[in-house]
Task: structure prediction
Amino acid sequence: MKAVVIHAAKDLRIEERDVEPVGPGQVEVAIEAGGICGSDLHYYNHGGFGTVRIREPMILGHEVAGTIKALGEGVSGLSVGDRVAVSPSRPCNDCEYCLKGQQNHCLNMRFYGSAMPMPHIQGAFRQRLVAQAWQCHRVEEGVSIHEAAMAEPFAVTLHAVARAGALTDKRVLVTGCGPIGALAIIAARAHGAREIVATDVMDAVLKRALDIGADRVINVADNADQLSAYSANKGYFDVQFEASGNQSAVRSGLEVLRPRSTVVQLGLGGDVSIPQNMVVAKEIEMKGTFRFHEEFGLAVDFINKGRVDLKPLLTGTFPLNEAVTAFETAADRTKSMKVQLAF
Ligand code: ZN
Result:
């Protein structure tokens, strides 16, 4: 089979790999769609992020869906021919965090396509993936396999929504409208948000945010005053989903959040400075959100039942042998929201 392997920054290769044997409790999936994520792009463009670096060749990818080709011993509830979305989250279910139901904090997590541990955890951009049956969630007939492959980033935003608390009737600010910000808009809307305002620095991105359900969009590069107007009377928004990782988005968000509101930080920008006085005086809760676990099944359920439409986020699909072009295109925010590979 062919796999998409990163060796170093800007060194992405299509390589032949052996298909793994299918063990008990496992299934073999012919991968059909794989979405390129921000972390894949970091490995491609920079060879890693923060202290995480590529130290050995690694198959990229963790947003995948495909069709089951073989079943291992003892697998029930799945059949050959079933189309499935595959959760890349593989916790040990044995460490102290797993036993508390916090699998996203597993001490022995084997999340696809991660260079955090050594040896690296090989990813899912490959023609055949052998996965545990419990990672596989059946996709209903008629649902696009490409939409199914967006279950993973959608699950990230469903977890962010869970961290935020109830959103019914809330006024929500989403800063940064890449794929995660856009999916946060969809997730917040599905959870009853009354009003959603989204910001970014690019008009093309904001146009899509409007199309997928934001009530208002603001280009803060050109019209920062439109956002700061919301700071009157101690602020306006109940919840901010910060998906840019940008310091100014964090700071301006704090100005327009109301007392006792919540910031959920999704974007990874590294070290930023924040006005502590504002956090203290407005009693703002700052929360991080990291990956997901049980939300993956919920994401697939939303997609299966047509309760969300993630298809407008897909801006490009490239065949496997054009992976480099796909990665270059995905990195261009003027053109791309979500770019996928077809296997
Ligand atoms: Zn664990």
